[in-house]
Amino acid sequence: MREKELRLALVCYGGISLAVYMHGITKEIWHLARASRGLHDGDPPPTGSAAVYRTLLEEIAEQGGWRIRILPDIIAGASAGGINGIFLGQAIATGQSLDPLTDLWLTAADVEALIDSAAAPASRFSKVWALPLAWMAAGRSADSVEALDDTTREEVRAKLSHFVRSRWFEPPFGGTIFTGLLLDAFDAMAAAPRGPRLLPAGQPLDLYVTVTDFTGHPERLQLHSPAEVVETEHRIVIDFSDGGEQVHTLAPAAELAFAARATSSFPGAFPPFSAGEMDRVLEMRGSRWPTRRAFLRRVLPRHHAANAADRAVLIDGSVLANAPFRPAIDALKQRPARREVDRRFVYIDPSPGTKFRLGGSGAEPGFLQTILGAISELPRQQPIRDNLEAIAARSERIDRMQGIVAAIRGEVEAEVEQLFGRTFFLDRPTPARLAAWRQRAHAGAVAKSGFGFAAYAHLKRAGVLDHLAAMAAEAAGDTGAPRRARIRGALAAALDERLADDDTAIVDFLRSFDLGFRIRRLRLLARRLAEVEADPPDPAITAMRRAIYETLAAHLDRQRGTAHPALRPAVRSWRGEAEPLLGALATALDCRRLDDETDARLAEALAALPREPRRTLLLSYLGFPYFDVATLPLLQGEGLDEFDPVKVDRISPDDAVAIRPGGAEATLKGIQFNSFGAFFSRAYRENDYLWGRLHGAERMIDITVSSLPPTIRMRPGRVAAIKRAAFLAILDEEEPRLTAIAALIASLRREIG
């Protein structure tokens, strides 16, 4: 049985009240991850849509011969997407349930619950003239409300009137109210029954939330002339990680709520957020926040250094980064590996193509529309082409590298055979022999590479210094660029001093610190094994794969600064002397012992292989120095942690058409009133939540099936049948709860058939 991990990097867009729709989507991603984990661990079958997902995964294993595990391990979100990303990350990391959130979304995400009591209208006549303005701003007219059914029409009309008659030139929604609701949500998740963590041990869950610093903070840039300039930076990314371990909570509830409140502080609707608001809410609740100082120092380092973290003014993350691909792309570095990986970027866009329509169609934009578009709508709706091009460029480099490896494989294997002789492969691998063979092969590659090796060695040196500086800074808890630069400069100077005394010191340096070379070699070996693996695989091949990936996991774990707690005091007490720091780093990495363990494990697995696959893998393993000289410059010195091209998928109303085509206009209510629509009606929220689950189920089934190799297909009509089963399971589960949309549920049952 072949194994594969379908790893999902989720990018969640902003969408104001469409947060309810995204809650439905993230709930299905959570159910799929639960079903996958339960199948892998042999748990009893689940219920609802999770049971359908488990059936799908079982059929893929039985009929296609592939055991696929679904791992949503990277989440990046902004605004409404940031809130849902935080909740999903908490559920994945801790095993908590998303179910308690549904009732909170349906009841608390209402204009009457969110509106600030101080902003409520003084009388029913105050600002009544502003009602048409709200419709105009939404690109709607009174006819939109009149077209609703009687109950919903009166609810929307009353709440919209209340909303627009609230305090003039002040945000209508209460910040402290919203913060309290977020804390309530985390409390509800914590109080509900929980299961195990949804990712395997050692696989980190990394969460990123964008926030906009309204006043900005200084960032220094190095130039030629002048030597340094200072610019104002407004973008902030708040990150959380569980480090690949089972945790009680991804972070204290106050910190998760801080990030959720800050990223969703939509301008004009909510007041800006600050740490002081969180302090007031916690005081009212009688709660403590013991990690407050450390958290603010981490997420607001410039403000903290200026003793101004309490006064930082934070607004909606989607103002400058509505589609936060960049932190998710950066998170691909240093991912662990246990088996083959199919990496997907899945972005959730609740209203693709929806435009700001204040001026009507075809008309020249007016004064107000131009201002509003320039300061709010246009930055939020910038296309993601740059992000997709960055992902495509990365995938292109991987494809090119694989092509180079394939093209020179014959020549490299001939060099290795000439170096060792054909009878060499008759020897049984032992740890001592494997170590000696590695050193001999490396010397052969150096001799054959000529002048090119000097440039290659400099590139490796630079990469190792970069990694050591980043690792030390991470261990100390300060990953800012200035600290990394100081550490790197000191380490580079110390290495230069060593080389001045002994020009062979670079060899000892790389043997002690070049973890990247070792990781790239193991990844090449894993890929070569996948290329020669038969179906069904030989048990010895399966054992070889396990040895490679478990050894690789040990190497990847060493890369993380957080994996070396003993290193923290050495870095924090560092005052500029590089040699003691190099000694501490060498002790932490302990590459020599890691080499011994690797040789022992691989030698045992290689010795058990039949002769031909053993020969093939040894040629690749020992030939790696030749391959690395050719490919490392192409990879810009950094290597690639996930060795396959990245695919991009989208989840949106436009992409889920199995039940009803027409996109958001045909399915969602929250797009009304400039995406504030779901705040005005529980029926609207029930509608959008249900469609979110249905669309999420359809697209996650599509994405899961697409991970199969091109040569494997499910039986005709089977995918459609699985989707239908998932749709009906969702309707059966939600019908008792969603009492305001009984007519929609009846209609959906007819449409599904």
Automatic annotation (TrEMBL):
The keyword Endoplasmic reticulum does not apply. Transmembrane segments: none annotated. SUPFAM superfamilies: FabD/lysophospholipase-like (SSF52151). A motif (GXSXG) lies at residues 77-81. Residues 10-329 form the PNPLA domain. The keyword Lipid metabolism applies. It comes from Sphingomonas carotinifaciens. The active site is at S79, D316. GO terms for biological process: lipid catabolic process. It comes from the Bacteria. GO terms for molecular function: hydrolase activity. Keywords: Hydrolase, Lipid degradation, Lipid metabolism. This is Patatin-like protein.
